[in-house]
Amino acid sequence: MAPSPPPHDAAPTMARTDPDAEQLLYELMLDPGNENPYDGYRRLREQAPALVTGDGTLVLTRFEDCDTALRHRSIGKSDDVLDLGIGDEAMDRPGTMVDLLRDSMLFANPPDHTRLRRLVSSAFTGRHVEALRAAVTARTQAMLEALAAEPGGDFMDAVALPLPVNVISDLLGVPEADRLAFTPKVHALIAALEPTADRDTVALGERSGRELVDYFTALLADKRARPADDMLSRLVASHEDDALDEQEMISTALLLFAAGFETTTNLLGNGLHALLNSPDELRRLRDRPDLMPTAIEELLRYDSPVQFSARTVLEPVTVAGADLEPGRLVLTMFGAANHDPDRFTEPHRLDLGRDDGSHLAFASGLHFCLGAHLTRLEAQVFLTLLVRRYDPAPAGDPVRRPSFTVRGFDRLPVTLSPLPGGG
C-alpha cells in the first residue's frame, strides 16, 4: 500500500526520561504471553512517545518516529543490540550466537549489507515468488484438508508452521527429512535473543546454534559436491568478486531458513486468530475477495509477527529531539507504531478494507524484509482457500508463544467445517 498522510497532525515528539514509562516498558517486555499488549503500548506512547531509558536507550512508539529512525543512514545494525537485557541481570550471548549474527545480513550495514542482500535477493522478487504459487497452493490445500478431517486440531502444527517451513526449504534446497526436525532449534536460537532471556534459555540457544552451524556446514559441502537447482547450490557455486565466504554462507543459509518461516508462521496464526475474533470481517472477506491484498496488510498491522527492532547509532544524529552518539541503542516498537492513531484511524479495530497507508510489520528502509513477497503470497493462498472452502471456528483455548519480540501462538485449536459448494 502506498503511504498516505496521517489522519490528523501530530505534535512533534520530544525525547525525555520518565521512570514510570520506563517501568511500563519493562512490564510489557516481561509479559510476553500478554494477549493484548496494545493497550500498554497506547499508554506508553501517550506518556513518553520517545522514551530515554536509564541506560540511554531511545524507545520510539510513534509511527513517524519509528519510520524515520529505520530509514536514517546514521542508524543501522550491530551486535551491540545483543547487550539489550530486561531481566534481573545483563546477559552475555556466547560466541557461536554472536558470530552467526555478525556475519549475516541481519546485523550488516552498507557496503556489506548491500553485497550480502544482492546475492540472494533475486530469489525473492515478485516475479520469482509468483512462480511458486502453484506449489504453495497444492501444499496449502493438502494441509487444510488434513486439518479439516480432524476437528479440533492445532492450526499451528498442521498448517502455520509446516507450510512456510516447506516453502522456504524448497527454495533453499533443505532436504525434506531435515526440515521440521530443525525448527525447534531455530525457535531455541531466537528465544535466546529475547531481551528477557534467562541463562538457561541462552545456553539452549547456544547449543542449538552450534548444531545448526554444523548442519548447514555439512549441507553446503554437499551442495558444493552435488549441486542442484536451488539457492544454496547457487550460493556455493558463485565465483563473483563479492561472493560469500564460508562463514557468511553458513550465516546466510541459517538466516534465510529461519526468517523464511518465522514471520509467515506467526502471520498465519495471528491472522486466523484475529479473524476468528472478528467474524463480521471474516464474512466480509468471503463476500469481497477483492479485499484480499488490503486484508493481508491489515492482518500484518493489527497483530504484527515482529513487535520491535533494536538499532544502533552509527554516526551522531538527532531523532525525536534526542541527540544520539554512536553506540546508543534505538528501539523501534513496531507493535506500537502500527497502532498509532496519528497514522491509523481507530487502530484498535480490525478493518480488512483499511487504506490508511503502509505499516511497519516488515520494518522499513535498508532492512525492509527480504521475504515480504513470499510471506504475502503464502498468506494470500491460505486465506483464499480458507474463505472459499471452510468455515473456521475456535476449538479450545489458544496458547500464546512466550516471546515478546516474535509474537505468535504455540497452539491454536480450530475446527474447519467445509462450506457447501466450496471450491
Automatic annotation (TrEMBL):
Domain of life: Bacteria
Family: Belongs to the cytochrome P450 family.
Protein name: Cytochrome P450
Source organism (scientific name): Actinomadura rugatobispora
